[in-house]
Design goal:
Elements (H helix, E strand, L loop, with lengths): L2 H16 L8 H29 L3 H9 L11 H27 L5 H27 L5 H29 L12
Helix pairs in contact: 2-6, 3-6, 4-5, 4-6, 5-6
């Protein structure tokens, strides 16, 4: 590969990360990102509702959900049930956060906030995927890990959703940059 093609490739990546922002997008792209974020928000609300109805969003409720309970006549989750849920979530959750992080990276948020939200989101995903297995096969105390993972995912989602929506619809500095730096 020649040094010219390497430089062009590096410049393209650098250009995306530093010069293109949500404020440079047209209304159609803003609408697309807004609808994506709104759909995710509805999904998170439904998930929180479901989790609350099943576990009460409590340590004891989470532990009972996976370990079973004589009080609620629930059986412990089977290996197969955990495998099916984990398999599905292993493919969907990272993709959702990849897209959301991508939209968030187009904002004017600081690089440190972008990094913190990315790490928080994916740490939350990791905890959410691992903790059912850890609750069932290691200790009920990993119910705290699941609650922490959920908190990290919801918290990072809210930041990564609110900042782009604010920049696209409230800040409104520019639509399609008129002046671009000459290189």
């Amino acid at each position: 590969m020649s040094s010219t093609s390497t430089r062009i490739s590096a410049e393209s990546v650098r250009n995306f990360n530093t010069r293109f922002r949500l404020l440079d997008t047209d209304r159609n792209i803003r609408l697309l990102y807004t609808l994506f974020i709104a759909t995710l928000f509805a999904g998170f609300l439904f998930t929180i509702y479901w989790a609350h109805s099943v576990t009460g969003l409590s340590y004891a409720g989470v532990a009972q959900h996976y370990l079973g309970s004589d009080q609620t006549f629930c059986e412990p989750k089977s290996f197969r049930e955990l495998a099916e849920t984990t398999h599905f979530h292993f493919f969907t959750m990272p993709v959702v956060f990849l897209i959301l992080c991508h939209v968030f990276y187009l904002t004017m948020a600081s690089q440190i906030l972008k990094l913190l939200m990315t790490l928080s989101a994916f740490l939350g995903v990791g905890l959410d995927l691992a903790s059912p297995w850890l609750i069932l096969y290691v200790s009920r105390h990993f119910a705290f890990a699941m609650l922490l993972g959920d908190l990290l995912m919801v918290g990072s989602f809210l930041v990564m959703a609110i900042v782009p929506l604010y920049e696209m619809w409230i800040l409104k500095k520019r639509l399609m940059a008129q002046e671009r730096p000459v290189e």
